Amino acid sequence: AETKRIAILGGDGIGPEVVAEAEKVLKKTEELFGVQFETEHALFGGVAIDQKGTPLPEETLELCKSADAVLLGAVGGPKWDNNPKELRPETGLLGIRKQLGLFSNIRPAVIFDCLKEASTLKPEVLEGTDLIVVRELTGGIYFGEKFRRDTENGQEAVDTCAYNEKEVERIVRQACEVARKRRKKLTSVDKANVLETSRLWRETVNRIAADYQDVELEHVLVDNCAMQLLRRPASFDVIVTENMFGDILSDEAAMLTGSIGMLASASLGEGSLGLYEPVHGSAPDIAGQGVANPIATILSVALMYKLSFNWQEAGDVIENAVKKVLDAGHRTADIAVDKSKAVGTSKMGDLIVEAM
Amino acid sequence: AETKRIAILGGDGIGPEVVAEAEKVLKKTEELFGVQFETEHALFGGVAIDQKGTPLPEETLELCKSADAVLLGAVGGPKWDNNPKELRPETGLLGIRKQLGLFSNIRPAVIFDCLKEASTLKPEVLEGTDLIVVRELTGGIYFGEKFRRDTENGQEAVDTCAYNEKEVERIVRQACEVARKRRKKLTSVDKANVLETSRLWRETVNRIAADYQDVELEHVLVDNCAMQLLRRPASFDVIVTENMFGDILSDEAAMLTGSIGMLASASLGEGSLGLYEPVHGSAPDIAGQGVANPIATILSVALMYKLSFNWQEAGDVIENAVKKVLDAGHRTADIAVDKSKAVGTSKMGDLIVEAM
Ligand SMILES: CC(C)[C@H](C(=O)O)[C@@H](O)C(=O)O
Ligand SMILES: CC(C)[C@H](C(=O)O)[C@@H](O)C(=O)O
Asked: Mind telling me which residue stretches traverse the membrane in this protein (chains A, B) (predicted)?
């Protein structure tokens, strides 16, 4: 196999710290399997604003385009929160998704046995929860026309939410494929009783799902889904939804697992190029202290192997190593019951590498 | 005091059943306080579609406009789910909100002591939860221009989300007033890192909140709010947000209380006219069986007394009666631990009337 190129974007806050541990895992993979990765770092997010005057510098984008996969830490922080739009880290994130054509965001929400107690939900409700939110990532109200105008009622702001059939088709087809490899249940979430985009969404889902007779389909309204996630999380398998609803529901789903420091995500397009990042944010409050949990980022590497490199085996090695380390009782502060026994970021990375 | 006129819209499913119990409470109020209400029933929702060919007949709208308050059961059901837009119950709901200028939806999410166990959240997390979602109800993507057009990528659907300063001002001012009478904490929810309407929202909130120095203000992004509701529900007092986010978050908040059959809501405008309805839906699966829980609708009457009639005392009488009946151990099936001991809709109404 040819050498895989991995673009590494540490980003802001705890981003560089957790990514450093993921890089140890990349190295260990090279040793274990006798492969070689070509890794290259680039500036992205707040740090890129500070050093280059833009959250997504041209050279970063070029690097990512030429890579086989992108590993991202996290971006953002209070320092840039009041900047104008072009100088905000999030703008870089939206830009990279759009420029790389990453229309699909895959966010597994799973329960780690040892962390069941960390959830605010009752363990008996969580039991068996293992779902994936497939979120459309390059359309909808995120990318529609936005503007302001003056009216007799003061300024008016406008956002436009648009979806065309092709955009819906490709994400739904992907969700069907994901469901087919799992428990074969697809929940499509929309607000078809109010939104025209949702009505087109639902029609398209019905049309595409007809090609997947083995996948059971249900339509749930977004407000109801926000409730059902709390009431019967284990009943969901794959949830597919549009960009804004997916943003909200995937975070709700992540939080209810109680394992937000442990959840990985993948953003995919038509080809094999993918962007992999932890679900958690840049946590500026604990940045630089060496206490952040690197597991979500390390598990993002496992997702990268599986989804971009089609390399199940190496992904499993990482996932099993994480499991072993947790089963042995090692915890970072965010998931430790007894905080005084918590290990730091770097130690957790080392433990996982050892266990690989 | 002049005679108050109350328009009564039973609607669909369990709507007429629960409203009938609320009417017993109205009668009992007349007896207790020597007042008289003028009540009038009208068709609304699916039943209006069936009988009049429209979910919101002109005479229903006129009745509501001339009333001091509107009491609504619930609308909707599978029978009308595949109808074209003009023939859907929800269209009537959106119409009545807009036509009556009910720009503010107030949804308290409280924990009933005896129902703490009904929540899927751990009791220690729920402890002390008592929040109100103030949702903007006549603007945003619900009411913006919607259309389809043909593109090279198939049909495209478009929804428009718009807010002007006046719309944001009035709802934020109302939320500040509500907060001022409570724990003086306001959480404004938006997606200011992505949406132009949210940026206008946030600017306007900051401007209006300056008039309420005694109210503590925080801004939370909608995805984060969906998480924080699960993690620290008791830390919220008043949440104010736009229409679509409010739809999702108020349902999430309602569900986490575990008391969805018990939650009342009010929709208000500039004057004292308000529309009162239970948070739960029309529950077609149990309609006509006499088992529905009428408490949310009965508590909606209490809200009506307080918010539209400025009649705290009579509202308290109802709320205390409900508390007494629950404390005595009476339960409808939805909230009963031992379903075989559950009382029916009508019996629950009678018990509450007796306790008043
Ligand atoms: C930072 C923000 C723009 C982003 C989004 O809303 O997509 C984030 O919340 C996410 O989910 O990745
Ligand atoms: C029925 C529907 C149009 C409505 C809404 O979305 O506003 C409902 O969900 C609600 O919250 O009252």
From this structure: none
Identify which of A224, A162, A140, A141 has the alpha carbon closest to the alpha carbon of residue A187.
Answer: A224
Burial of A350 (0-12, 13-18, 19+ CB in 10 A): middle
Check whether residue A253 and residue A282 sit in a common domain.
Answer: no
The band of A309, judged by pLDDT with boundaries at 50, 70 and 90, is very high
* A354 to chain B, closest Cα gap in Å: 34
A355 in B contact zone (CB under 8 Å): no
B62 & B126 share domain: no
Phi, psi of A193 (to 5 degrees): -80, 0
Centre of ligand 2 from the C-alpha of residue B244, in Å:
9
* Residue A247 among the catalytic residues: yes
Note whether B248 and B338 are same-domain residues: no
Using most ligand atoms within 8 A of CB, pick from B83, B93, B97, B146 the residue to mutate for ligand 2: B93
Which CATH number goes with the domain that contains B227? 3.40.718.10
Of B90, B151, B157, the CB nearest to A197: B157
Pairwise CB contact (< 8 Å): A231 & B155? no
Contacts of B155 in chain A (CB under 8 A): 164-165, 200
**B299-328 pLDDT, tens per residue?**
999 999 999 999 999 999 999 999 999 999
On whether both B52 and B170 belong to a single domain, the answer is no
Dump pLDDT digits (tens) for A24-74: 999 999 999 999 999 999 999 999 999 999 999 999 999 999 999 999 999
B267: in domain: no
DSSP conformation class of A120: S
Looking at the domain assignment, is residue B264 inside a domain? no
Same domain assignment for residues A129 and A252: yes
Q: Is the CB of residue B303 less than 8 Å from the CB of residue B318? A: no
Structural domain includes residue B351: yes
Verify that B96 and B129 share a domain, yes or no. no
Kindly state whether residues A31 and A122 are assigned to the same domain: no
Range of the domain at B65: 1-100+273-356
Pocket around ligand 2: residues whose beta carbon is below 6 Å from it? A 193-194, 223; B 90, 93-94, 247
> What is the rounded distance in angstroms from the CA atom of residue B298 to the CA atom of residue A192?
30
Q: Which tens digit of pLDDT belongs to each residue from A258-292?
A: 888 899 999 999 999 999 999 999 999 999 999 99
Domain boundary among B258, B291, B318: B258
- Which residue is associated with the tokens 């790389």? A100
Q: Is B86 flagged in the annotation as binding?
A: yes
Sign of the Cα torsion B69, B74, B80, B83 reads: positive
Residue B116 lies in a domain: yes
pLDDT score of A82: 87
Q: Global pTM? A: 0.96
Q: A93, A156, A218: which to substitute to probe chain B, counting the most B Cβ within 10 Å?
A: A156
